[in-house]
Amino acid sequence: MRKNRNRNKFSILIILSVLFLCICVIAGSNYADAAKKKASKTSLSVKKQTVFINGTYTIPLTKKIKKATYFYTSNKGNIARVNSKGKITGVAKGTAAIKVRYKYKGEFYTVGTFKVTVVKSSLKTKYKTLDLHTGENVTPDTYLNNVNPDATYLITSSVSNIAIAADDGVIKARKAGRTALSIHEVYNKKSRTVGSIALSVTGTSLIRDEVKMAYNSRMNRNELLEDINSSSKYTFTSNNTNIVSISGTTIVSASSGNKTQTCEVTITETLSNKKTYEIGVINVTVTSDPFVSYNNQNVSIGLNQTLEVGNRGVIITNKKPKAKYTLIPADRSIISDKLVGVNYGTTTVSIRETIDDISTTLPELVKVTVNAAYIKKDLSTNGFNTTVGGDTYRDYPVECRNINATYYYESEDSSICTAGTGGMNKDQDYLIATGKKAGETRIVVYETIPESGTKNKIGDFKVIVSDGSSNGGSGSNSGNNSGATVDNPVASTLISSITFTYKGKLYNGTVSSTNLECIFGDENGNYIDYGTDFNSLTSSAFDIKFANKNYSLGGIDSQDGYEWIINVKLNDEDNTIVEVPVSLIPAELDINSIISEITVKLGDTTATINKDTAFPEDSSIKQFENGNQNYFVNFTTEQYIAAGATEYDITNLQPKYLSELDNVKCAVTENVFGANNASANSASRGVTVKPSSDDNSFWTFEISFEDGTVESFDVTLGVRD
To answer: CA dist 231 to 226, 337, 549, 563, 565, Å?
Structure first.
């Protein structure tokens, strides 16, 4: 009986246990279902994304639980970092997985895994070296993989004037040469180095991207461009032809004006293969104000030489007639108060302009170097070429001569070429060298300092004397070389001299010893006359002497009258022809070459203005200098009254004005045609002189030129105390 009772109790326990387990299973199942239901409320909106290095992206979730705490874990923190807000930051190239979970009411739940791919901009392998032509541009999508459109690409150049790049990463080739470019990407205020490019640039380039010009002046391509290619064609375009017009490859400023104006000139180069590049834009300022041009901002003088305002010193353009210009050196231990070079070195010189006791300083500084004497560059490079009984060298062969020193010369072989001086007095110690027989020798230049008696060797240069034989052709030939092909020639290896004759006037060209070009018009003068009609010039005006007796002329072609190409035939096995560019540069307006005298007659009194006549207010400045076109002449009050101009007599109750008189005359005497200015029209060109506004105190006249240019001049009568 007791056994049955125990068995029943055991059965009941088993049943209760089973029921409890069932209840737990059901309850657990319901709780899991509830948890799953809560977990299903939060999910990933997207499951993957691509970002750049230093870029950010926040993982988007849907149905986030308000009181839940979310957790984000990157499996590769070195590729992509993630913060507690789900914001991903790209660190390095690669792929990472971001696990997303949250905690709610003490329990953790998994949302999912977010995949992030980090990419980076990188330099394309083939662009680690790059060859460009001046004016050529390269954009980032050309040289980079995976360009970030939201990033800024900064590029630094080891030689900044060869290439530049703006924030957009566009590489712009500016000048021939080599440089290293370092590329940096700036994204989200963070910078990283992308790579570096070894850049090589070839082609013609701008000497400067800003120039200043006077009114009625010109600048040709040789003053604006460097590394000119003789086989290329250059096109100049002005955005305002009223300020600067274009004549072939020469920019021409407006003929007159009294204010400062600017415009842009765009220059393109077309290669022989027809490819065209915009090599640059020049900002041109045209002004009537005084200035020192860029080409004149570096001056070299010798020891004890005096620095002056003028053609061999500081050249000021647009000097004002009544102004006084004072040079002020920054370092007086190099340039003294008296403007004498007292020690070797370099300093700057400012220029003070004074008019009527009011002083201003010109904006440009001039760098002045006091140099030791040295052999002239042309002689040092090319030597002196002559023939037996031909040209004799009669000049100083040195630059920056020490004024207090004495120079003398020795020939290594006087049987080929003798060397002596013009005399022993001051300024007579220049070289006289004469060819005696065919051959080659050298002349040594010495300098003696009088204070110490020290003898210094300045240097030496070669002398080549030929026998003067010629093989005919359009020009005469000199030299004793063999006629072998010239590799990478400069003009002086092909041409020994070149002249140009127009209307009886002879111009000597400069044959470059450093470039393949010849120039008429440089620091040595020989500019083509102002107003020349270049369209009328012909090739027969050139006379060429070749540097080798085997060379001959293959033809002379003109592009625009200003620029010519001489074809030099080397007559070698390959029938080589070398093209030598020749530039004819027009002179600025020179009054002395056009007008010899202006005569003003007031009653019985006559006053004249000529090349020696100074301004009434400043005797140091001549009225015909510096292209001045406004002239002044003063008469006394008594002379005006004697002529009948009683407006100057305050006691006269019925004054007779100057404009009413018929005994006031103004006449212009021109220079003889062809003597000094071959470009001006002849004496029958119709110069007109007339009073302005019926006032005899102001006269105007005009002179016309071959090319159609008409220049206006005026004469003002004033009262002298």
So the answer is: 14, 51, 25, 13, 9
Cα–Cα distance measured from residue 157 to residue 173, given in angstroms and rounded to the nearest whole number: 11
| DSSP-derived secondary structure for 221-286 | HHHHEES--TT-EEEEEES-TTTEEEETTEEEE-S--SS-EEEEEEEEEE-TTS-EEEEEEEEEEE
Contact 712, 705 (CB under 8 A): no
Instruction: Please spell the DSSP secondary structure of 176-238, one letter per residue.
Output: SEEEEEEEEEEETTEEEEEEEEEEEEES-EES-SEEEEETT-EEEHHHHEES--TT-EEEEEE
Distance CA 91, CA 52 (A): 8
Fold of 374-584: Immunoglobulin-like (2.60.40)
> Which class in CATH covers the domain with range 205-287?
mainly beta
pTM, full prediction = 0.58
| Average pLDDT value for residue range 71-85 | 93
122-202 CATH pick, 3.50.50.60, 2.60.40.1080, 1.20.1530.20, 3.20.20.70: 2.60.40.1080
Q: Dump the DSSP string for 569-632.
A: E--STT--EEEEEEEEPBPPP-GGGTEEEEEEEETTEEEEE-TTPEETTEEEEETTGGG--EEE
For the segment 243-270, the average pLDDT, to the nearest whole number, is: 89
Per-domain residue ranges of the chain? 1-40, 43-119, 122-202, 205-287, 294-371, 374-584, 591-720
| CATH fold of 294-371 | Immunoglobulin-like (2.60.40)
Q: Report residue 551 as tokens.
A: 């060379």
CA distances from 375 to 270, 281, 304, 391 (A): 38, 37, 18, 20
**What confidence tens digit (pLDDT) does each residue in 512-541 have?**
887 788 889 876 778 888 888 888 899 999
pLDDT tens column, 630-684: 888 988 888 888 888 877 665 555 556 777 788 888 888 876 543 334 444 443 3
Please say whether the beta carbons of 544 and 566 come within 8 A.
Answer: yes
Spell 106-132 as b/e; 16+ CB within 10 A means b. Answer: eeebebeebebebbbbebeeebeebeb
CB-based contact 568:553 (threshold 8 Å): yes
Q: Which of 508, 580, 510, 494 is nearest to 545 (CA)?
A: 494
Report d(CA 400, CA 369) in Å as an integer. Answer: 10
Closest by CA to 618, choosing from 634, 602, 642, 607, is 634
- The rounded mean pLDDT for the chain is 83
DSSP code for 465: E
Which segments of 40-157 does DSSP mark as H helices, in order? 140-143
Which of 213-217, 292-296, 487-491 comes out lowest in average pLDDT?
487-491
Q: Which residues are 62's β-sheet partners?
A: 43
Q: Which DSSP category does 342 fall into?
A: -
What is the DSSP track for 351-384?
EEEEETTEEEE-S--EEEEEE--EE-HHHHHH-E
Collapsing DSSP to helix, strand or coil, 430 comes out as coil
**Beta pairing class for 398-399 and 374-375:** antiparallel
How many whole angstroms separate alpha carbon 196 and alpha carbon 202?
Answer: 19
